[in-house]
Amino acid sequence: MSPKMRWTAIKTALWIVCLAPLGWLLFAWFVKHDLGVNPIETITHETGWWALFFLTFGLGLTPLKRFSKWGWVQRFSRPIGLFAFFYACLHLLTYIWMDQSWEWAAMLKDVVKRPFITLGFAAWLLLLLLAATSTTGWQRRLKKNWKRVHRLVYLAAMLGVIHFALRFKTLLLDWRPTAFAATVMILLLLRINWRPKPQPFST
Amino acid sequence: MLIRKPSDIPGSEITSEETYRHRRAFMVAGAGLIAVAALGLPKLLGGTTTPGTGEKLGTLKKSSFSTSEPSNSFKEISTYNNFYEFGTSKEDPARNAHTLRPRPWTLKIEGECLKPRTFSIDDLLKLAPLEERIYRMRCVEGWSMVIPWVGYPLKALLDLVQPKSTAAFVEFSTLMDPKQMPGQASRALNWPYKEGLRLDEANHPLCILGLGLYGQTLPNQNGAPVRLVVPWKYGFKGAKSIVNIRLVKSMPRTAWNDANPSEYGFYSNVNPGVDHPRWSQATERRIGEFKKRPTQMFNGYGDQVAALYAGLDLKRNF
Prior knowledge:
The structure holds two protein chains of two kinds. Chain A has helices at 3-31, 39-59, 61-68, 77-99, 104-113, 115-132, 136-142, 144-150, 152-165, 175-193. By secondary structure, chain A is mostly helical. In chain A, 25% of the residues are buried. By secondary structure, chain B is α+β, with helices and mostly antiparallel strands. Chain B has one domain (47-309): Oxidoreductase, molybdopterin-binding domain (Sulfite Oxidase, Chain A, domain 2), CATH 3.90.420. The longest helix of chain B has 23 residues, at 17-39. The termini of chain B are far apart. At the A-B interface, helix 2 and helix 5 of A face helix 2 of B.
């Protein structure tokens, strides 16, 4: 297999894996006809969960590359980040369409008044910015700043985790927000502690 | 002891279970068709109706307090529950509540009363005529259902123990037994679960001791064998699997108020004008419906209960 063909195969596999949660959701919805007693809640929770999952998973790629010295790992960053954004878009769309039925005034009030919604929306805006500037063209245009801008992904992940935690009736009721928060913090620490001396000529 | 026979009502008045289910199926089909036509969302709405698994409770008195709105299906009511003693997800109670042993069961009533007593579940089932009470149930999380409870006014029970004039509040305690309630091994809430009402609230004719659902004894996950149903308050006020009722002088502590006093007040009356700090209470999603509907003050029972709160600032006493 030529390296190009192998890369195509890997990329196809990646797409299949990343689209599997959506596929499962559509299967449960249209084939099994079973999304639980509160289907809109199920769709909201699932899409949000997978956005957070891919976001956190994507954050782990850089440390993994550095520890393992597998350079190719980095090539997954962009597609996985974009899939996180994709699920975040589905999550937002579920809220706008199914949950709020396009009641813009009610949603605006939510965004302004409720940190729960404000944080989620802010995280989505950050992901929008990162997705929009994820192209090679923007990488070239922003030069060194591109990396700085894209470190905002850590902020987006933290906002996402807090947003997730706030949906539970009392904080710390469920182990998952804590698990996400811990993972994001560890991954962030791995980045900060790596190479104490700045390398002026690194790319 | 007072043992009354259920009052006789003509058989023609009683809706047979079959008709009951057909009405539901019809509603679901109608809702489903509208959804398909208008939104292209096949079968997103409604669930299938499966019969209950409890013991039949015989002839039930109809109540003028019942709503004519269509009831949610047994499946919806019994598989989407908040009952943290069996886990914190909505599906957990239906999966885990089989460890609860609702019989034999005793309920002790004590405190500021002249005749404290202990009742067995069989006593409770015969204590007053069982009524069907089809009530709206509004969860503090922003969803609602219509539930055909079986029970009778809590007042019938409280009158038997003769509350003293010093009794101002009533405290309800759920069973504490981590063997039967595995969720109590985690510290999700302060166990045992406690709830409370003012005595005049507890004596209100809408407030019932719930003993059944859909004409049968309660499924474990819905609070078997005996629970509280207070339809004008958020659902969590309805303590489940109650073992102890205490008449007390001062406002009792309650589980959710302990967990987060700024979010869950003692009164917790359904109030679209007082938002939960993290989400709006102005609207709710009726399980089975697509679009949210406006939430009604006192969950639509204002005509009956508003007088209880005359002069009380409901924004402060949320």
